[in-house]
What we know:
The chain contains 18 helices and no strands. It is an all-alpha fold and 433 residues long. The chain has one domain: Growth Hormone, Chain: A.
Amino acid sequence: MTAAIALGAPVPDIRKQVMRKLFSRIVLYCFFLFIINYLDRVNVGFAALQMNQELGLTPKIFGFGAGIFFLGYMAFEIPSNMILHRVGPRVWIARIMVSWGIVSCAMAFIQGPWSFYILRFLLGVAEAGFAPGVLLYLTYWFPRRERGRAVAGFMTATVLSSVIGAPLSGWLIGSTDGAFGLSGWQWMFLIEGIPAVIFGVVTFFYLVDRPETDRWLTSDERNWLVAELAREEQEGASRATHDFRSIFRDARVWLLTLVYMFNGIAIYGVVLWLPQIVKTIGGLSTVQTGFVSAIPFVFAAIGLIVIARNSDRTGERKFHTAAAGFAGGAFLCLSALVGAPVPGFLLLCCAAFTLWATLGVFWTLPTQFLSGAAAAGGLAAINGFAQIGGFTGPFLVGWIREASGSYTLALVTLGIFPMLGAVLCASLKARRD
């Protein structure tokens, strides 16, 4: 193996060549899949502009139904990721996509609160394992030095899906309303659910499970990558946790779960209610609401990439995550308290820039002390248990909105949580990459 590498390009050149190929063939593709995934998860926020009135859903009912998705997601996250670790990413990610695509289409036929609750819960069950599965998949291919950018590239889909999906969802609702006897929100669910089924089939044939069975790299490139990943695994063997059961005894796993949960309360509270918050500005059509709702996510995408690049450059992870979360929470509180629509919206954009930046760097932290089956279970455990935040955020906004008659107190409440998460993150004992 050493001879093969020596005869080829110098190691720095091989590293650049390999990373260039992996970013284009793995990260870019998974990024595209995550756009589909995240859009099907949060498009209920746009459906609410029309659906809530048609079906008589109150703010509290909508908040509970939007959030119950995450309870189903949480319940099946760990089993899903452990199955992926055994059967391989290609088969399992394809299965996940086809399942959630079918349920997402079925959302078009909800009739009232109970069918809304049931299908949102089933959508969470169907999607369980996708995000942590891809995060685990990236650890199979990317050395630690490039892992922050790879995760950030994948996670950028969570914001770009809203940049693309917000105008798209608004346009679909407005332009298809009444066609063939269906409302615009029903057509939106149907049209946006179909791509998951199609690309689930494509994924089965496209993905490659491990570098050892790769068809994208030359033999020199493949040998270098396999050797580099093996070297890192060996270096980390003495300090890494490998056994699945041991993750539940590791305080760091639970601390990171709380950090991610607190960030999730704010992120999902904003995402699932943003169209209705923007609508309160007044005078906006559904299509215009879609375009305005996309603006904060442009800032979020920029922040996610900028912070992740700086974290990769310095090798520092913990304080990048903590500082971004604290700033995001502070800006979110200020956006609610400023009192004027335009400054408030600009502060919300600042909150998006910093709060979403935590997503790219955060997921490099657990892989500093987890590997093997523990990494598969640990990533799923953190992401899964933290989905309580995805339930809590939307429900809190609906409950406070119904009780107070405005979004001010709800946004302040959301902003407090990532600031608490930042304090917890700063207390984590973590090393530099």
